[in-house]
Write a structure and sequence with these properties.
10 strands; 359 residues; eight-stranded mixed sheet; BirA Bifunctional Protein, domain 2; alpha+beta; two-stranded antiparallel sheet
Length: 359
């Protein structure tokens, strides 16, 4: 029996030390200590031995059983630690690597629309001009030939800031036209600018917001006339809405800062309750325009006897709503990521007249 014990210790013990997987350890345990294992069979034969040998043999077999059990448990822990190390090495994240770009970001429709307008007018030779959101009465009203009694000057239409009472209070600009005034006072003609920017008025519903965006254009030189204005705007709306034969008409209107003044309509169809731009027998007002009033030129130090020009303006949100089918202006400012994911545009795809506007 002692020879068999030594054989089991040598063979099974060596196999346990060399086991490469938990399954191998389990097979060795069953082979040695299972119900029909080699060590178990030796224990079953203890009853056939004389009492003196039985006591010594039993102690030897129990010692071997404890030795093999301890060896199996130790090897199992070593294999588990080795497996954990392997997994950690395989699943390790290299924090020194740059962050992978996530395709979840979207360009807001307002930003997209501004870029599209800048791309179109940029091809016509316009440059972008900017100015402050907080303005004074002269640049926002007086220089633009808006009389003191005009409703736009009232507090129900304009956001006035608290003042000290000694001077006229500052205000949040009600249009981007003050940038035209600042440009004409700072630069000599010829002038050709567009002015996209944020504006403010006391109004709020499905088609109006107290905070909205406008884009205005201004051209001043010695030869510009109404025909140039019409040609510029016709080309713009057809490029912006991507309708080559979009019908356009100009209706006489009134604005204090232009003379003559006009409103521009584009053709549309409302058949079946659906608005569709193009030939359809109906019209939709899109912007206001006209020749710059001589008093506005004079207020900016430009001689109206020598220079003339045209100006136009439109709401950016309104243009975006028409082009991209957005039904409610208020959703532009609700910061809903689901809305932005639906109406937004992929980044790094700047619109251009060569590569296309909307992507």
């Amino acid at each position: 029996m002692l020879d068999e014990v030594e054989k089991i210790r040598r063979v099974i013990g060596g196999a346990i030390a060399a086991a490469a997987a938990q399954a191998d350890l389990e097979a060795l345990r069953v082979d040695a200590l299972g119900r029909k294992g080699r060590l178990t069979e030796l224990m079953k034969g203890l009853g056939r031995l004389p009492p003196e040998q039985r006591r010594q043999a039993g102690a030897t077999l129990n010692a071997l059983k404890d030795e093999l059990t301890a060896a199996i448990e130790a090897r199992a822990k070593a294999l588990a630690a080795s497996e954990l190390t392997r997994r950690l090495d395989a699943e390790r994240v290299d924090v020194t690597l740059p962050v992978r770009p996530q395709p979840e970001g979207r360009i807001h429709p307002i930003s997209q629309t501004i870029d599209e307008m800048v791309a179109i007018f940029g091809e016509m030779g316009f440059k972008v001009a900017e100015g402050p959101d907080i303005e004074d009465d002269f640049h926002n009203f007086t220089a633009l030939n808006i009389p003191p009694e005009h409703p736009a000057r009232q507090s129900h239409d304009t956001f006035y800031l608290a003042g000290d009472g000694a001077a006229a209070p500052k205000l949040l600009r009600t249009h981007t036209s003050p940038v035209q005034i600042r440009t004409m006072k700072a630069e000599k003609p010829p002038i050709r600018i567009i002015v996209p920017g944020r504006t403010y008025r006391v109004d709020y519903d499905a088609t109006h917001s107290p905070n909205f965006h406008q884009v205005e254009g201004l051209v001043v030189d010695t030869t510009t006339h109404m025909g140039h204005l019409k040609g510029c705007l016709v080309e713009f709306v057809r490029a912006f809405f991507d309708v080559a034969d979009l019908p356009v008409r100009f209706r006489p209107s009134y604005f204090p800062f232009t003379e003559p003044s006009a409103e521009m309509d584009i053709g549309c169809s409302r058949a079946g309750g659906e608005l569709k731009l193009g030939a359809g027998g109906d019209w939709l007002e899109i912007l206001g325009c006209g020749m710059v009033h001589p008093k506005v030129l004079a207020n900016c130090g430009i001689d109206p006897a020598e220079y003339q020009g045209f100006a136009f303006g439109m709401g950016i949100e309104r243009a975006a709503m028409l082009k991209y089918g957005i039904p409610d202006l208020r959703t532009f400012y609700e910061a809903d990521l689901r809305w932005l994911k639906h109406y937004g545009f992929l980044p790094l795809e700047m619109p251009s007249m060569v590569g296309g506007l909307a992507r």
